[in-house]
Task: inverse folding
């Protein structure tokens, strides 16, 4: 069985005789390092093997013990090393000052060996306990982060699976969910400092918005194939049925929300997007004919992203449209179909939208 490495103690004193006395006392049990000045002490304390405890003389030339302790605390590598002051200054004021600046104990000279050993053992035991606790806390934090990451990944994969389920009913959409997800994320970032939106578009909201976006057309699973995949124009009756996908998606997400043991934050945005991303700024959209700011911000962002992608993508009933022509149609819908400020953000970031579209283009 391998013996444990002895703990390391750094003794700092400008008097060699004092160093010898303390070294002889401690070396049978501990690994001892020594420094005859404050500057050397700071260098040794930051090098391997790093001390587990420092016995520090107060009265030293050039740099006294208080200054050395200040230097130890200023260095992240040494700030947590416990320090015991060892000094001939036998006054309550000096002791209180030492404890006030961060020393863990105070020993007066001439030293009494049993007292020194007892106090050293106590402080080393406390440091070991703190180190174990810090290690346990670090492990717990890492484990919590890992589990949160696993949960986030599971949630994201589940969302993608549901979105792809809708996509299988409308196979020509290809990477539509990836593109629209990136579009709304880009728009959110561009508008987060805008006076109208800054109170809503926090980093967390934008993250949830992007996570929710793939579910915008989940209601299409309830639309018959004959309508969903029809190569020609829909009849008025078929169009009414097609429009129900917005409400169907909202209701499906709401049912999932009711089944959850506790509220799931992103589902609130997912419901908004699913139900209202076909509403129009002027009130002529569906399913509820909302207008202006009555349309949730999430749905207004999704509306523009969805229309742009539909314009530039091939469908059974149309060829893809050039990016510039799609941009002009979006611009023409400013204040009619789309929120004016969101439209302006899109136009300002048009090249970024094009880059997203190209990065996630449908393979042919």
Result:
């Amino acid at each position: 069985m391998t013996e444990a490495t002895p703990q390391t103690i750094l003794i700092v004193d400008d008097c060699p005789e004092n160093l010898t006395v303390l070294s002889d006392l401690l070396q049978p049990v501990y690994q001892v390092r020594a420094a005859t000045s404050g500057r050397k002490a700071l260098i040794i304390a930051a090098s391997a093997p790093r001390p587990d405890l420092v016995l520090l003389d107060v009265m030293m030339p050039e740099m006294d013990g208080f200054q050395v302790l200040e230097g130890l605390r200023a260095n992240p590598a040494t700030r947590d090393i416990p320090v015991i002051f060892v000094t001939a200054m036998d006054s309550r004021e000096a002791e209180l000052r030492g404890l006030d600046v961060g020393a863990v104990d105070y020993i007066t000279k001439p030293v009494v060996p049993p007292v020194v050993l007892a106090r050293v053992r106590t402080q080393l035991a406390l440091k070991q306990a703190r180190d174990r606790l810090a290690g346990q806390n670090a492990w717990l934090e890492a484990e919590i982060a890992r589990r949160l990451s696993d949960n986030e990944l599971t949630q994201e994969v589940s969302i993608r699976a549901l979105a792809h389920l809708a996509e299988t009913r409308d196979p020509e959409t290809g990477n539509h969910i990836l593109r629209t997800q990136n579009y709304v994320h880009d728009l959110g970032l561009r508008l987060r400092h805008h006076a109208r939106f800054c109170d809503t578009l926090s980093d967390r909201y934008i993250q949830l918005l992007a996570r929710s976006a793939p579910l915008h057309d989940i209601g299409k699973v309830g639309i018959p194939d004959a309508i969903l995949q029809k190569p020609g124009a829909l009849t008025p009756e078929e169009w009414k049925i097609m429009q129900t996908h917005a409400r169907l998606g909202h209701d499906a997400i709401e049912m999932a929300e009711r089944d959850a043991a506790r509220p799931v934050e992103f589902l609130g945005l997912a419901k908004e997007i699913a139900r209202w991303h076909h509403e129009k700024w002027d009130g002529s959209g569906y399913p509820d004919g909302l207008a202006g700011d009555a349309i949730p911000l999430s749905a207004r962002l999704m509306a523009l992203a969805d229309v742009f992608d539909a314009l530039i993508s091939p469908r059974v009933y149309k060829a893809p449209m050039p990016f510039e022509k799609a941009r002009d149609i979006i611009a023409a819908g400013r204040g009619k179909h789309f929120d004016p400020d969101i439209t302006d953000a899109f136009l300002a970031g048009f090249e970024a939208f094009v880059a997203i579209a190209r990065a996630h283009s449908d393979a042919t």
